[in-house]
Design a protein that fits this description.
Blueprint lengths: L15 E11 L2 E9 L15 H12 L7 H5 L8 H6 L1 E6 L5 E5 L7 E9 L4 E10 L8 E7 L5 H4 L7 H9 L4 E4 L2 H12 L6 H10 L6 H8 L6 H52 L1
Antiparallel strand pairs: 1-2, 1-5, 3-4, 5-6, 6-7, 7-8
Helix pairs in contact: 1-7
Length: 288
């Protein structure tokens, strides 16, 4: 759905924009590939409470933001420990009491399953495609998911490129490496360097700002939000000095402007005298 429909429905904004989002075994999106076609347009995601809106937002955040900086619960306005990467990969959807009377999460999936999140971006002007993907799985004896990262300079899909290999992650990696223009990474840092280069992201805080804006529920004060998330760390003393210098220069410019206006008014008052003088001089010449 294009939020800002125009007469030209085929037109999209400049730069890389998300063309498609796919998730497999992510949160409560279980057992199938869920495909969301955005077409590069500005889109509106709506749904009932608990329908998975924040789950999809968190999939996008996971693709772009380093794990230590992600606050999954912010988008959902949930408790501090309700959502985590592990809860999304396992598909926690409820809680129940165990034999000791303690609550434990109920999962849609066991640790033998794997999960994939994938997004395809397109620059319509250059017809360039970039796919970002992450694959999550559990190694024997581990309670936390392991993952690897994928960057491709072409459009991939979960069904075609990440399925049909059983549960052998090594086989999946080998198959992906054989696909032209596909790169695999074992750490976020290398992965981020690559996709930032492709997207032309130069500012270090660009993705931090993206996370803040995409997952916020409300902004109590736009001034504080901009100062904190866009201006970065600011020396308030230095800022106040700069403001005072600007005010001084503004007052100086205003005084000059006012002086010019006063002189202009004086010149306008003298114009009739100058014209009368010209007429008088002309009369003297005619009499002579």
């Amino acid at each position: 759905m294009n939020l800002f429909d125009s007469d030209d429905n085929s037109g999209v904004g400049p730069g890389f924009r998300m063309r498609r989002l796919e998730v497999y075994n992510w949160g409560t999106f279980d057992g199938a590939v869920w495909n969301f076609e955005l077409g590069g347009h500005t889109s509106l995601l709506t749904g009932e409470i608990g329908s998975g809106k924040s789950t999809l937002v968190d999939a996008i955040l996971t693709l772009l933001i380093p794990q230590p900086k992600i606050n999954y619960n912010k988008a959902a306005d949930a408790g501090s420990k309700e959502r985590s990467l592990n809860s999304y990969v396992r598909g926690y959807y409820a809680k129940r009491s165990n034999e000791s009377g303690e609550e434990e999460p109920v999962a849609l999936r066991d640790k033998n399953k794997y999960s994939v999140i994938l997004a395809v971006f397109c620059d319509a002007e250059t017809n360039s495609f970039v796919t970002l993907a992450q694959v999550f799985y559990f190694t024997p004896g581990s309670d936390k998911p392991t993952r690897f990262f994928v960057v491709a300079e072409k459009a991939l899909s979960i069904k075609q490129d990440f399925g049909g290999f059983g549960n052998n992650i090594t086989d999946l990696k080998k198959r992906l490496k054989r696909i032209p223009y596909v790169e695999l990474f074992n750490d976020y840092t290398s992965y981020a360097v690559r996709f930032k280069s492709l997207f032309g992201i130069e500012q270090e805080n660009a993705l931090d700002l993206f996370q803040q804006t995409v997952s916020m529920k409300k902004v109590n004060g736009i001034t504080d939000f901009v100062r904190k998330n866009m201006l970065g760390d600011v020396d308030m003393g230095e800022m106040n000095d700069n403001i005072q210098r600007l005010l001084t220069r503004f007052h100086d410019l205003k005084n000059i402007h006012d002086a010019i206006l006063r002189d202009r008014e004086k010149m306008e008052l003298l114009e009739p005298i100058a014209k009368a003088s010209d007429v008088y001089d002309q009369c003297l010449k005619e009499e002579a």
